[in-house]
Amino acid sequence: MHKPLILKALAAGSHVLCEKPLGMNFQETKEILEAAQKTKLRHMTAFTYRFVPAMNYIRYLVHNGALGDIRHARFQRLQDWGEGAIGWRQYYEQAGSGELGDMGIHRIDLAEDLLGPIASLCAHTKQWAARDLTKSGEPCPPQDVEDWVAWIAQFENGTTGVFEMGKLTKGFGPRGGHDQAELNGTKASAVYQLHNPHQILFSNRGESYQIRPVPAEFLKSTDSPREPNEGDPLIRFRYDQAWEFMSAILEDRECTPSFYHGMRAQAVADAILEAAASRKWIDVKA
Fold this sequence. Notes:
Layout: H1 2-11, E1 16-19, H2 26-37, E2 43-46, H3 53-63, E3 70-78, H4 92-95, H5 99-115, E4 118-126, E5 148-155, E6 160-166, E7 178-185, E8 188-193, E9 199-204, E10 210-213, H6 233-236, H7 239-251, H8 259-278, E11 282-283
């Protein structure tokens, strides 16, 4: 559904910020990226969780070598949405996939932002619920996409990643779900938890995890006008995505994340679906 709208916006001379997933499959996202690159317009994929303060800080720790070489990484997004209909998200023709395209693709982007490209993977998916009744009890076409997906990934840098996403899964956060990433390095380990956006868990080798507040310089994007300690921290960080988009336009530079990152995440997502269908390890093609 995104492609025709994006092409119309580009043809009209508009910069584009598009929700994830960027397209229905890798080929479509590649065509979208190529169309955008033929213009001088700014393009951005809405991988919102890149802007969580705790993720800003962990990115800094990883890229500056504070954790050492990352050996293992685990990413989870667990939620329990119940078994009723959830609209367009449950139909392949509208969404391209289920939990993978809804929540999994965010974690693909986070993982590659932290650790670099995923080279190969194996995967499994499950559809548990029919979702053939609306909230009001009216019948509707049943869902035809997955409620749950998990994959093991081998990164080009040698890191092994384990991922799990579910819409019928209980988490440890105060709202009944959780979004968590744990990275184990040769020097130290760190944990990101969305429900604690202004802190991480940190541990040197041989020690227990301790809470570490996110330093002030990572609580918001550079020069962002928002006040990090005002409002709901689970909402406010999202404004930095809009700030990045507008800043890139004004500064005439590439957005981060751009349509390239949307295409890259879709390449991994396509490999996950292929791996689950074939029950084989699959190399990521892009």
